[in-house]
Design a protein that fits this description.
Radius of gyration: 19 Å
CATH topology: Rossmann fold
Helix content: 25-40%
Number of helices: 11
Largest sheet: 9 strands, mixed
Strand content: 5-15%
Number of strands: 9
Length: 331
């Protein structure tokens, strides 16, 4: 699989989850529950190195039988956390294969909210660098592999492009995978503004507002007002995310942090998976990238699959998890 730059891969949706919307919503509609209690668990904190005192919360599950394999670090998307269904499903799959798995809570997300004054955003690759530095004592000789979903995948690609593989100290990932990444943040924001995506937008915005104002968050009165008054995600980003992180506005934030501009600089073997019927991310975001420019990056696209869906025929394990595991094994 490594070295192939753009592959239209076969994927067949599982009944009754036809279409991008049902693929996207399946885990919510079925109220899927994933039990990880059979895998030994340990929690720890990863300090950020920016002087804020913020600490990311992470949970490590070990397989029942140890193997000499890399540690998998899973990075959630917007409004997600360690308990997001897709993260738990992926964790269960990799644990069953014998991999130790860390589910990372980004700055201000889930359990990290209580120990972080700040907030994650699509370009917050420094947080991943700091997390990787903190993981040094937990990562064994086989190394580490990073898997990012949606906005977490955008952050991951930016981190991989900025990575100094010659530096010593922080662990360098052996490989990576990014699932349903909003490569062009401006295009994705415009897609979410379409009337057919109104319910998605309302749900995502409610999640952003809830986690950004939960106890532990450090906000000025103006920031609190901006968050409360935001009517959609572009407005939330323009009035809060962008100024909070030093950008002139949403347009500047999207332009500087979109993963598409970092694909060419990725330095480790990386698999990117995307479905062309993703209701949130238009195909143009992927069509605008030269996938032949970097031999380290492999793109798998499918006609169907939705957003972090990929619920396929004949298999209860999501297709993207199977493909990521195969890619990791090939490295």
């Amino acid at each position: 699989m490594a070295g192939a730059q753009a592959i239209d891969a076969p994927f067949r949706p599982r009944a009754p989850w036809w279409g991008g919307d049902l693929q996207t919503l399946r885990n919510i509609l079925t109220r899927a529950r994933v039990d990880l209690s059979g895998f030994p668990e340990r929690r720890f904190e990863l300090p950020m190195r920016d002087g804020t005192g913020d600490q990311l919360q992470a949970v490590l599950n070990n397989p029942r039988r140890a193997r000499d394999v890399p540690m998998i670090v899973l990075i959630h998307g917007m409004s997600g956390c360690e308990d997001s269904t897709y993260l738990r499903v992926s964790a269960a799959h990799f644990l069953a294969l014998g991999y130790p798995v860390i589910r990372l809570n980004l700055r201000g997300a889930g359990p990290s909210r209580a120990t972080c004054r700040g907030f994650y955003y699509a370009g917050g690759s420094q947080d991943l660098r700091d997390a990787m530095a903190g993981l040094g004592e937990h990562v064994g000789k086989p190394g580490v592999v990073l898997i990012g979903y949606s906005l977490g995948g955008n952050m991951l690609i930016k981190y991989l492009a900025e990575l100094d593989t010659e530096a010593h100290g922080d662990p360098v990932p052996l490989a990576a995978a990014a699932i349903s990444v909003p490569l062009d943040l401006a295009l994705t924001a415009r897609a979410l503004m379409r009337p057919r995506n109104a319910l998605y937008q309302r749900w995502l915005l409610a999640g952003l507002k809830k986690e950004s104002t939960a106890p532990g968050a450090e906000l000025t009165a103006d920031e609190k007002h901006a968050i409360d008054g935001a009517r959609d995600i572009p407005e939330f980003d323009d009035r809060f995310t962008a100024p909070r992180n030093g950008f002139a506005g949403a347009t500047d934030y999207y332009a500087q942090c979109s993963a598409a501009r970092f694909i060419a600089g990725v330095r480790v073997p990386t698999l990117v998976i995307h479905a062309r019927d993703d209701p949130w991310i238009p195909p143009a975001a992927y069509d605008g990238v030269d996938w032949t420019a970097n031999p380290n990056v492999t793109l798998l696209t499918t006609r169907r699959g939705g957003h972090v869906g990929f619920h396929g025929t004949g298999d209860r394990v999501p297709w993207h998890d199977r493909r990521a595991a195969a890619f990791i094994g090939a490295q």
